Predict the 3D structure of the following.
Amino acid sequence: MRRKTKSCCSPSCRPPAARRALPALLAALLALSGCGGGKEDSLRIGAALYTQDDTFISAMAQDLEGLVREAERETGKKITLFIADGKSSQSTQMNQVDRFLARGCDVLCVNLVDRTAAAVIADKAEAEGVPLVFFNRQPVAEDIQRWDGIYYVGADARESGELQGRLVLDAWRAGREALDRNGDGILQYVMLEGEPGHQDSLLRTEYSIKAVTDGGVEVEKLANETANWNRAQAAARMAQWLEEFGDGIEVVFSNNDDMALGAIDALGDTPRDRWPLIVGVDATAPALEAVAAGQLYGTVHNDGQGQAQAMIDLALALWNGEDPAQAVELAEGNYVWLPYRQVTLENLDGFWED
Ligand code: BGC
Ligand code: CA
C-alpha cells in the first residue's frame, strides 16, 4: 500500500511554485523522494457519495465499479475503489474523507452532501497532496480554485433546464389544443424542485421556464415546492396539487426523473386524457420505461456513465503524473462537462443501454 506521509508529501516540503503545476511535479517529487512509485502499486480511489439512497447517484456508483474493472483490464494496473455512503450527513462525509486519506487513497472523488463544505475537504486533500475530483454537486468557483489539484466533473445544469423547457415548447407548438386544456393560451404549470441550494434545482427551475417563455409562450405558475429529488415526497406534493388544482395543471416540470415518477404515482387511476404533460431529467431506467409507456412525455439524459468515466480517466492521469488535459476534455482549467440530451418516445431506443 502506498502511504502519503507528511514527511515527503505535505505542502511544507513542496516549494510554493510547485503548487501551480501539481500533477507532473507531484509525480516527480514522489519519485525522487521514494514515497511514490505509484505506477508499481495499486491506484486507490476513495469515492464519497452524498447518499447512496438516490437513484441517479447509486447508478453512478455502479458505473464507477464497472468502469474500474474495465480500466484494470485495459491498463493492467490494480485499481481499488472505496465507496462511502454519506447518508446525507456532512459530518459523516467528513469522517469518510479523513478515513480515505488515512488509508492512503491516491485520488478522492467527492459528491458533497453540502456544497458549501468544499473548502474544508479541499484543504484536507491539499495537506496530504491528494488530488480531488468533486462531482455532481458543484462547489463555487473559488473552492475549485483553492489549489491546483481540484477538479469538477458534471453536467451544465442550465443546459438541462433549457432542454427540458424546449421539450415542452415543442409539445405546445405541435399540439397546443391538447396541452392548453382550458384554452386560455397560457400554460399553467407546477414545478417539482430538487434539494434547495443544489445547482441543478436552481438552474433547471429557472431555465426550463425561460426556454418556454423565450419561445413566446405565456406561462402561469400554479405551485412550486421542493421534493428533495425524492419520488415519495413528490407524490405527496402532487397529490396535494391535484386536490387543489385538479385538471387545471397542464404541465408538470420536475427537476429530476424520480420526482416526475412521483407525480405519475399520484395520478394513479386518473384517466390518461386528464393527465398533464410531465417532463423530467436524468433518463434513469424507470423513467425510460415511463416514457415507453407514454406516462412521461420526455426527459433529459444526464450522462452519469460519462461522468464516471471522466472521473476514472482523471484519476488515472493524476496518479500517473500525466497531463489530465490529455485524458479528459478540460474547460476553464479544471472542469469536465458532459453534455445533456433530450429523450422522447421518438429517440428512446438509443438510451436503453446507457
Ligand atoms: C440528478 C438528480 C440527483 C442529484 C443528486 C442531479 O444531477 O439529476 O437525480 O438526485 O443530482 O445530487
Ligand atoms: Ca392554459
User: Anything to note?
Assistant: Residues 209 and 290 are 23 Å apart (CA to CA). The mean pLDDT is 90. The first strand starts at residue 43 and ends at 49. The two ends are 34 Å apart (CA to CA).
